[in-house]
Amino acid sequence: GENVEQHPSTLSVQEGDSAVIKCTYSDSASNYFPWYKQELGKGPQLIIDIRSNVGEKKDQRIAVTLNKTAKHFSLHITETQPEDSAVYFCAASSGNTPLVFGKGTRLSVIA
Amino acid sequence: NAGVMQNPRHLVRRRGQEARLRCSPMKGHSHVYWYRQLPEEGLKFMVYLQKENIIDESGMPKERFSAEFPKEGPSILRIQQVVRGDSAAYFCASSPRTSGLADTQYFGPGTRLTVL
């Protein structure tokens, strides 16, 4: 079955800097890759997703890139703010299989 | 437009008791998914349901766990004879009726189950 690896597990950046979180997946049939942000005591919130027919998607300060050949995708957050501090999860699915999540990255933005 | 609702938000049970977790999907969504999250871990898929049907229960433990999504009312995740290892956060997600498992899923706030 699908296996999703996520790195790093923790990430600290200065306010205003960029943050990059990377995920790899094992199932070449996977075609849907969402990213979720989870704040303490809350449920995961979808922040951006990408499907395999595109290589990049951007929404204001957040972007996701997908390399299907290498089977990895990345989340990029620019101009980080303290409110970006949270745990971020990547996930992958082929459409015929359930979402498989990475173990998460704890992002701390230092003011 | 209300999001996914889950209740209770916190549930404490003693070993051997039953736990019932409820999930109301977003308005217009007919697909419900249940996930379990252990501390410092990602979410693990348990079961995927449509109204009155279990579509995929490949992540559900074979014993003590069951799920339903009746024609009327919320989806229920039921855990019988709870053990300490069942302590976790349980999240429900819902999606509209589009492309099945690759649908965009929206999560509720979760139920945090503690087994004493």
Walkthrough of the structure:
The complex is a heterodimer of chains A (111) and B (116). Chain A has 111 residues and is mainly β. Helices cover 0% and strands 55% of the residues of chain A. Chain A contains no helices and eleven strands. In chain A, strands 2, 4, 5, 9, 10 and 11 form a six-stranded mixed beta sheet that branches. In chain A, strands 1-3-8-7-6 form a five-stranded antiparallel beta sheet, with no helix packed on it. Chain A is globular. The relative contact order of chain A is 0.35. By secondary structure, chain B is mainly β. Chain B has strands at residues 5-7, 10-13, 19-24, 31-37, 43-50, 53-56, 65-68, 75-79, 88-95, 106-107, 111-115. In chain B, strands 2, 4, 5, 6, 9, 10 and 11 form a seven-stranded mixed beta sheet that branches. In chain B, strand 4 (31-37) and strand 5 form a beta hairpin. The radius of gyration of chain B is 13 Å and the shape is globular. The model of chain B has no long low-confidence stretch (mean pLDDT 92). Chains A and B meet through strand 4, strand 5 and strand 10 of A and strand 5 and strand 10 of B.
Give a short summary of the structure.
Chain A is mainly beta and 111 residues long. Chain A has strands at residues 4-7, 10-14, 19-25, 32-38, 45-51, 56-59, 62-67, 72-77, 86-92, 100-101, 105-110.
Write the layout of secondary structure elements.
The complex is a heterodimer of chains A (111) and B (116).
Chain A: E1 4-7, E2 10-14, E3 19-25, E4 32-38, E5 45-51, E6 56-59, E7 62-67, E8 72-77, E9 86-92, E10 100-101, E11 105-110
Parallel strand pairs in A: 2-11
Antiparallel strand pairs in A: 1-3, 3-8, 4-5, 4-9, 6-7, 7-8, 9-10, 9-11
Chain B: E1 5-7, E2 10-13, E3 19-24, E4 31-37, E5 43-50, E6 53-56, E7 65-68, E8 75-79, E9 88-95, E10 106-107, E11 111-115
Parallel strand pairs in B: 2-11
Antiparallel strand pairs in B: 1-3, 3-8, 4-5, 4-9, 5-6, 7-8, 9-10, 9-11
